[in-house]
Amino acid sequence: xxxxxxLGVNIDHVATIRNARGGIDPDPARAxxxxxxxxxxxITVHLREDRRHIRDDDLDRIRAASTLPxxxxxxxxxxxxxxxxxxxxxxxxFVPEKREERTTEGGLDIAGLHAQVTPAVQRMRAAGARVSxxxxxxxVQIAMAARMQVPVIELHTGRYADLHNAGDTAGRDAxxxxxxxxxxxxxxxxxxPHAGHGLTFANVGPVAxxxxxxxxxxxxxLIGEAVFSGLETAIRKMRTLMDQARA
Length: 247
Ligand code: PXP
What we know:
Strand content: 15-25%
CATH topology: TIM Barrel
CATH superfamily: Aldolase class I
CATH architecture: Alpha-Beta Barrel
Bound molecules: pyridoxine-5'-phosphate
Order of helices and strands: EHHEHEHEHEHEHHEHEHH
Largest sheet: 8 strands, parallel, barrel
CATH class: Alpha Beta
Number of domains: 1
């Protein structure tokens, strides 16, 4: 079981701030360099259909700005798979995407959509990417991921985070138990479990303590926190909290 829990820093929301004004500042490529300096293990970006976060031309600049592996999140669409094939990320994480949602709500229903997802998985695998599926901590979804023979799944922690933030301790603990069971199930099926969404300094500990998890992907909170403390400080503190939870 991995002792070092990897931290993927999602820098999308640096681009969100830039896009609020147009122009070039703040630059997500600079955030990628800072994340590397602060000890991140990877850079995660989501090229959305509506380009509300990073844009196509950010991809190459982000890659040039750091030596970290890039995890590209993408919807199961012809356009996005085509872009991802040409870009050739280290990892490709398929996520659900609806234009009207504020963020990625719920995991990808691979059990229901496997006929659409499987060819996209095969194309990204052929492009050399380590394919991941962003799913709910649900045994049906995990069984389907194993059937699809992807190397990685990412468990959606959004529900856990919402329950934590609402002060619903019983609900949060139940969701944490679901995440723990799902991570173990994934491991036993030969999948490498990652997790992410909605994680903060306040709620990361119990998730980081799930020993079957190999990686967390964290974005929105870190970029928000960077406003107060700077990005490197925020990432270093998250790293410390993750390490403490594992100790
Ligand atoms: N993992 C995946 C697959 C995501 O889509 C996102 C962003 O929605 C995250 C992790 C990071 O979530 P957050 O920005 O809430 O930390």
